[in-house]
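DNA 3'-5' helicase structure dump, as promised
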Amino acid sequence: MLDELRSIFPEKTPFVVLTATATKEIKFEIMKKLNMEQDRTDTIWMLPERPNLTYIVKKITKQMTDLQWIWNDIKVDEEKAKKTIVYCRNISSCAALYKYFFYELSKSADDVHSRRIAMFHRSTAEANKVHVMSEFPKLDNKVRVVFATIAFGMSVDIADVEQIIHWGAPRGLEQFTQESCRAGRDGRHALSVVYYSSFDISKGRCK
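structure tokens r here:
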């Protein structure tokens, strides 16, 4: 109903519409919904190319042990380990990875605030979500790796994330672009790694 909101303002009131990613078709759909006339609307856009990102694609070979290099980094560097988001295709995969890292890192402390890893999905306890959203953006935070689903997406703008890992191929290019580009926002070199299986990219599971 945003078009109705526009109608109550004076005709020359400027409006700005912002989006991170939009195809040509979506752009015209947005303009149509908001009753924005094409000949009276300026469009400013840029390619989503990120020269400071290195993209790597790997086929899963040894299941969770493929991510050994990440928990090695935590064991060695602890709070100085690279800040990483691991995106999973579903909640069960997210929970399995969290459990695996929890035991591999031998962290049996009950206090979630002392852990180097965290989990974020729609069913995560609200207190844990608040902890992740308040702690992870800090430059000197204890949490170094967050295992997440697409729920950890909107409003996530953390400048010093150095690695985005996709555990399972993303469901589409738009989702992949949005999630991978959450790395290296401070301009430093960053890494985007996709681990995929044949099942992930089977017909109908990826666009």
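The CA atoms of residues 3 and 34 lie 4 Å apart.
lmk if u need the other ones
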